[in-house]
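Check these lines:
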Amino acid sequence: MDVLLIDPPYCSLKGIPTDVGYNIGLTSLAAYLCREGFNTAVVMGDLLMDLPFMSAWGWFSVNLSKYARGQLQYCAIVDNKNHPVWQKIDSIIREQKPKAVGISYLTPFRNAVERVAAIVKETDSSIKVIVGAAHPTLCPQEVMQNPDIDFVVCGEGEIPLAGIAAQLNQDKPDWSSVPGIYYRSPSGQVMSTPPPPPISNLDELPFAARDAVLGCDYDHYRVHCLTTSRGCPYTCSFCSDRKLWGGKVRRRSVENVIAEFKYLEQNYKVDVVDFSDGTFTYDRKYVESFCKAVIENNISLKWRCTARYDNLDVNLLKLMKKANCGGLYLGAESGSDRILGAMDKKITADQIKSISKMVHDVGLETVTAIIIGFPDETREDIEATLDLMRHLQTDIFDVSSFIPLPGTPAWEIVPEEDKKNIDWRKVSYKSFDNYFLKNVSAEDFRRYMTQAYKIAGRTQRRTVIRFGLRMLWESVSGWFKH
């Protein structure tokens, strides 16, 4: 095999199963490599823990407090090189015998990525280890300090990864000819090459190679995902998308996305399709065109997407619902207008409340994101967020604690000493150990997170009851109709 792509286990190490059987980024890279003639496969680490699969609506059953406490389990597993999940990865590498292993690397995944890289080198030191995605793109020199890592792919991965794969087949590889990478010279010096130009026409890329995932049963994993764009036009201070993509947005044509919907409809059992875009609804004309195309093509697939409060209105929401939209993921983040301003969200708490009610009245389900622990937050700010949660009309809350990600404006306001001391085994979006606040004690932060998780739990239980009653009514009314 030329390249084995690995998404390291993460959520499953905390005891939380996944509802999606593949990483859309890695399967898209696999499709490109296969088209270029390279033998490629994908390993999803979260499938290796043998947890019960999660249904399309599995987020109704996720216990956020349990997820947060699961960080201790994650810490224990990444520290235990003899854990069965690492042994399974070792066995797969020995069986597939790849020339190179590419690992997806997000900042909170650091310890899991380093464990996988070490396994590769212990299995066969001649296998090249490549890392890509947000963290190595933004921190390449830091990542290259790990001797188990041979290459960093910066930014868009298709052309650099194919270039590495091509050089692996040469007697004397010339790494300087591969664009967009960091590598080591024969003397051990870290070198880099200029990036390739961005792929201008995303329609030219093949659909994700979902069947390249080893051991994924799509009769069970019926949640599918795809992306329509690369980049995000917004400037939220906690997000690295703008730095990662240079502030520019490229988008697939509606016709190309509809073609992939038809492909999924014809080849898989699909419960729902999740759009993985930074913000799907940022371009109203595009959303309207997509919805009309879904209706005109009689596509029956349900879909969910990311959205912003400031680009929604009743007419657009009704059209989205008519086009089988099954839900929105919205970023409220805070109930404090001061913190919303610091986050550059360009919205107020009152607008969040009114638009959430509008979405609810149209009949679309929502998952609402909340972030607690932003560095400048005070007790009053956090209590305003908890009050917003108590009164907001939503189906599910996704509560996170703040993480300072490299490449974000928020990263710059975290003291250098705090950055150096982050233990990514303990710190994650869902953990009680995230503590970057200036004005609130660690003890009070944990207390506030506990309260937020309780409010989220109550909201979740009400939603489950309401959905259960709705399904019962639909079943009974359908029986009477027949």
